[in-house]
Amino acid sequence: MYFKCxxxxxxxxxxxxxxxxxxxxxxxxxxxxxxxxxxxDDGISCSLIVGSKQVQTVGFESITKKQSHLRALQNISLWKxxxxxxxxxxxxxxxxxxxxxxxxxxxxxxxxxxxxxxAEQLNNLESLDLSxxxxxxxxxxxTPSGTFSNLKILVLNKIGITWAEVLRFAASWPVLEExxxxxxxxxxxxxxxxxxxxxxxxxxxxxxAIDESQLYLIAYLPxxxxxxxxxxxxxxxxxxxxxxxCKTSMFPSLQYLVVNDNQIxxxxxxxxxxxxxxLQSLSCTRNPLCEVDKAEDIIIxxxxxxxxxxxxxxxxxxxxxxxxxxxxxxxIEWKRAGGHPDPDKNRPNAEFISAHPRYQLxxxxxxxxEDEELKTEQPFMLKNQLLTLKIKxxxxxxxxxxxxxxxxxxxxxxxxGLLSRLLKVPVSELLLxxxxxxxxxxxxxxxxxxQSLQFxxxxxxxxxxxxx
Amino acid sequence: xxxxxxxxxxxxxxQIGDACWELYCLEHGIQPDxxxxxxxxxxxxxxxxxxxxxSLDTFFHETRAGKHVPRALFMDLEPTVIDGIRVxxxxxxxxxxxxxxxxxxxANNYARGRYSVGSEAIELVLERIRKLAEQCSGLQGFLIYRxxxxxxxxxxxxxxxxxxxxxxxxxxxxxxSVYPSPRISTAVVEPYNAIxxxxxxxxxxxxxxxxDNEAVYDICHHKLGVKRPSYATINxxxxxxxxSITASLxxxxxxxxxxxxxxxxxxxxxxxxxxxxxxxxIISAEKAYQEHLSVTDITAACFEYSNQxxxxxxxxxxxxxxxxxxRGDVVPKDVNTAIAAMKSRTSVQFVDWCPTGFKVGxxxxxxxxxxxxxxxxxxxxxxxxxxxxxxxxxxxxxxxxFDLMYAKKAFLHxxxxxxxxxxxxxxxxxDLAALEKxxxxxxxxx
Lengths: 468, 446
Hints:
The complex is a heterodimer. By secondary structure, chain A is an alpha/beta fold. Chain A contains 15 helices and 20 strands. Among the domains of chain A are: about 315-365, no CATH class; about 385-465, Phosphatidylinositol 3-kinase Catalytic Subunit, Chain A, domain 1 (Ubiquitin-like (UB roll), Roll). Chain B has a six-stranded parallel β-sheet with strand order 5-4-1-6-7-8, sandwiched between helices. Strand 3 (about 55) of chain A pairs parallel with strand 11 (about 360-365) of chain B.
């Protein structure tokens, strides 16, 4: 049996006698890299016709000669070549022992045992790509010692492997540095103990079954520097072993984290990332959080040691700008939460500190934000521009004190016009002045008709004095 | 035998050179101190090692102590950029005499680079080049890296090229130039510098590969997802391109492309020597191993406008020559299939008078990427060098900008005060107009 369909009636159209059961490794290799003996290509390979143009091919014969020296091959690709088995034992080792990099993706390999049979003959194997083969991992596979002894890169995307199987076979990959496990519906079930310890890169993207708690299980791989966890539906992360402002012991060597295409929408996620000891580069795109205005600047301000964000280098001026902006944007909230420029009075509440753990540090670096910086602009509404003024007529005491709301841009002439209609006095006879409760006893004349109330610094609550 | 000297001029040239030699060292297994780490290659047969050193020899000089020194000269009229190399990671790779700098820079002024400040530095530079040439048993030619828009890159290079033609008349000179982008400018007087330098170097250069920053920014943005690429990212991309172009010179390969062969195959007339460069595939490191790109896929990508490193549309012109340099795991069978797939494209039009349009080369050395860089490791890459009449669009744009400024005699006094004459401007502009006419003529049918 090659594989079982995931649906009971799937595959019902396949007719057994039409199915291609594949070829062995060497047949595929020779088909691609060497000409058969006595081939008929010799004469034709020197020139081809492309449209109406002759194409001169230079060096093709010598290439095929070289490649028919399969021994010299080091970097090969047998993508989609229908490789299903290793073939006769020992033949691979005889024919092409120097192979270092093999791409066996999209073939018909059905069992890890076949892979072992191929790999044990390739002592120099450093990089192996087995993506898109539906591999089974029998529980009794013995791996001869020495196989995979040089294997540094292993690509197992889309093969339906489970985490338990990865760990089981990881013992036979002692020097593995890069492991790609995309799209395998993996959920991490246990901690790797004594295996995968040399791993520097782990790609677990597109495995939606992974959640935050499972990440703790891989948090102690000592050399893990690159972690790709895009498209896993991640929304939060916590490092409970470290308090605010402290560094976590999890992911000690992690330098480059990729969390694109997730469900991150809380800033607490970014706050937690600041706790990582070695984080230098973060890729966080296509998350709900990134829709926020100036999200990138906020991320830069929240993670102190970040040097690259979304593949763009963060220059010192950019960092300075982002941090200053952050300090200003959240200044009012800080004040409301109990923050104060005077260190003795500065006691922001716990909620603020957990939402903005770096805020205090930024205040120490740049100084506490001043009130002037924090004044938000009043929205430009007409009602904010109106001055409420009392109007007293000094001559006639029987007149009541009127209260009127006037815009500060209103000219004295227009004010006089308004008052003349109200008081039934001709405009030319009016003399205006005002007094302010801020300056008791002092009366300021509004002499120039063409100037506005604002020119004379008339403010809210002042009193206009009218004489005629 | 067949050694190549690389000369890096001006800030652009020096920084591209920095990225380039870093990549070459990675490819040859050379450590920052110049010694090769042998362990990984021990098990290969001895003959293989010999071949390797023979090809390594074209770009690196091996001292008696076993240290590999690049056959390169870095030159700038001001010290900052060269000092960056002196304190950088690879500072012990270069001999101090290979890093030359002046004290006062050319201030984006062709006239300064060529006449006033440049003329003081030229003797020293020529002497250093002589020394490097003496170390070669059979110097093939020079690779010159520079930008058109800067002062040193434009002015000093034209002076240097003239002198090199006099001293080394039979040696090939290939240029790798950063062309001023259509919409992004780093200097207002770029058009002046570019046109003046093109006029002076056109007869001394055998082939000029052009790249422009805007095209590279777009590639970084769309293919690598980097919204604001730094010069480091861009230079690494250019280093990959250069590595592909020079791979056959540095590694044993079936296609023996030496510098003269480039000329012979890409340049139909002496003045028509500006091929367009394209590189494929360009994949972000975050997407490694995601997609499989066959030879057909990457060949098709070469004919896409978006993969080009110069902004000009080849669909509006005709191809005169096309050189496809494959690298890595590529078999002739796949190349045949790929080219057959391209033949059905009506957008690939050749001129009538050029019978053999394509030249294909394969080098098995797999492409290397800088660790921690933006590019993903791939099994095969292709670099296409195509000589197309569409490049006249780039010249026309530049000429137009030149005309607008020259009509008002804007910024001219900076050049005049350094000893240039207005006549030179007129001469240069006329030369470029003639170049445009030449391109038009070669594109005509019989």
